């Protein structure tokens, strides 16, 4: 059996400092090496308009743009490269399918990702502005799933690749929800307003027991 390690990362403070923390922790690591290799493909496969991406961040989660800026300093990458690789705007996502159970105050999610897609990072973040949250990290600032301090949980589930449009990938949309929403209804409103890159369903469960599965197809 292959051993799987998980790095637990805790952070409090400004979004900028949280981003810089991640950059400093992963500068020169195997994770950065893998991401640099991925960039050779991602540069060819899509473009990310920095101005348009910031417009959406200002609308849905303005603090996260500061996290990208801090990440840029910590990793010593240009902000343009950071936005292209980690903002989640216009990026591509591997085909995956995960199941979830929401019942009796418990949210359980089964991962069907290939092991090579795991970053092995479990983050506990408490920004100065925005809700504290816990969850597995991916694409650096994104979350594979998570729960925030208001008891709202979000996960996502692949649907198809038949219609790829301009917008954000699932792990960034999950972060938008965790940063700003208290209830399932508020999360649904974000998913209805935000542009989606790929067709995913999003499972939502709040502290009042309100559950929903929302189709993120645009």
UniProtKB/TrEMBL annotation:
Domain Peptidase C45 hydrolase: 106-214
Top-level taxon of the source organism: Bacteria
InterPro entries cross-referenced by the UniProt entry: C45_proenzyme-like, Ntn_hydrolases_N, Peptidase_C45, Peptidase_C45_hydrolase
Record's signal peptide: none
Name recorded for this polypeptide: C45 family peptidase
Higher taxonomy: Bacteria, Bacillati, Bacillota, Bacilli, Bacillales
């Amino acid at each position: 059996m292959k051993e799987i390690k998980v790095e637990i990362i805790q952070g409090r403070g400004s979004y900028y400092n949280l981003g810089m923390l991640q950059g400093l922790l992963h500068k020169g690591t195997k994770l950065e090496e893998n991401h640099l290799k991925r960039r050779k493909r991602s540069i060819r496969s899509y473009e990310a308009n920095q101005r348009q991406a910031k417009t959406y961040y200002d609308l849905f989660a303005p603090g996260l743009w500061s996290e990208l800026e801090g990440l840029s300093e910590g990793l010593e990458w240009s902000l343009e490269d950071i936005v292209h690789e980690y903002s989640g705007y216009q990026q591509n996502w591997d085909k995956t399918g995960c199941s979830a159970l929401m019942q009796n105050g418990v949210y359980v999610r089964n991962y069907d990702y290939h092991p090579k897609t795991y970053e092995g990072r479990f983050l506990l973040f408490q920004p100065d502005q925005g809700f504290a949250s816990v969850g597995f990290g991916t694409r650096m600032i994104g979350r594979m799933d998570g729960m925030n301090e208001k008891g709202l949980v979000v996960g996502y589930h692949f649907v198809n690749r038949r219609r790829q449009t301009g917008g954000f990938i699932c792990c960034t949309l999950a972060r938008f929800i965790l940063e700003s929403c208290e209830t399932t209804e508020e999360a649904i409103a974000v998913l209805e307003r935000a542009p989606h890159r790929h067709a995913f369903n999003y499972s939502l469960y709040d502290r009042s027991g309100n559950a929903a599965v929302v189709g993120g197809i645009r």
